[in-house]
């Protein structure tokens, strides 16, 4: 069966990258090997731990009732409320018992093919550094708070954990077809900004929503954004916003639904049929959509971030 990932790739070591595959030219710090892993986690200062605690407390004021139950359960299972930046070794031991995943430190954004390879081996690369007080509300590169608070609790859910591994394996297939942008859109609208239907309403499971100060309320409750049921073919053709709230969120029925929609699809055929670039704007509603809420787009029409528009 043709699937999201190529079943023949051996991920036990970093696979060779074919010469015709483009990867972003990131400069590897000289002390790192091909796996881009830091030999040890940073020695955080007392203030670093205090920043974590303040970020944690701020999120916990908005997330109950808005975050997916799997995320809140994951915070509990990993005892992430104990205070201070978690030590990756102890965190990985707990996570390994639950779903076989570990958390490994990286200095910065790492090349796509290395990131995919770690995911394929159930290792989640997490930023080693923590933001400063000057960048408390918004950071360009993912730090330890975004990566560990935002992403790791979801890895305690067995189906989601399998989805993330398949995603990593899928990355190698997408590179061969030169369709990383399309697969990146799937990551964006699920792993970073995904919503899920629960018995008592729509909740957030995407790390970009869960680790930020304003997006949980906006994504779950505001009138501006569209909320559309996830359709993988459609999402992979859809553009997205990097440095502002999303004009559109995609909603899954369950993690089983997400896993089935992606892993069991014929991605060879999909990649061969995808046009280069994106077909749909990030605020578009198209005739095949199953729309949960059609947004007013008021926030973005007023100019979005930088204009002072209220996230309503
Ligand atoms: Fe992230």
Automatic annotation (TrEMBL):
UniProt pathway annotation: Amino-acid degradation; L-phenylalanine degradation; acetoacetate and fumarate from L-phenylalanine: step 1/6
Q: Which domain of life is it from?
A: Bacteria
The enzyme's first-digit EC class, named in words, is oxidoreductase
List keywords of the entry alphabetically.
Answer: Iron, Metal-binding, Monooxygenase, Oxidoreductase, Phenylalanine catabolism
Needs which cofactor?
Fe(2+)
UniProt-listed Pfam families: Biopterin_H
Look up the EC number in the record and give it: 1.14.16.1
Q: Which CDD domains match?
A: pro_PheOH
User: Which molecular function GO terms apply here?
Assistant: iron ion binding; phenylalanine 4-monooxygenase activity
Report if keyword Cell membrane is assigned: no
Query: Could you mention a single GO BP entry for this protein?
Result: L-phenylalanine catabolic process
Q: Where is the Biopterin-dependent aromatic amino acid hydroxylase family profile domain?
A: 1-312
The entry's Fe cation-binding residues are 146, 151, 192
Q: Does the keyword Cell inner membrane apply?
A: no
Q: Which reaction does it catalyse?
A: (6R)-L-erythro-5,6,7,8-tetrahydrobiopterin + L-phenylalanine + O2 = (4aS,6R)-4a-hydroxy-L-erythro-5,6,7,8-tetrahydrobiopterin + L-tyrosine
Family per record: Belongs to the biopterin-dependent aromatic amino acid hydroxylase family.
Identification of the protein by name: Phenylalanine-4-hydroxylase
Q: Which organism is it from?
A: Erythrobacter insulae
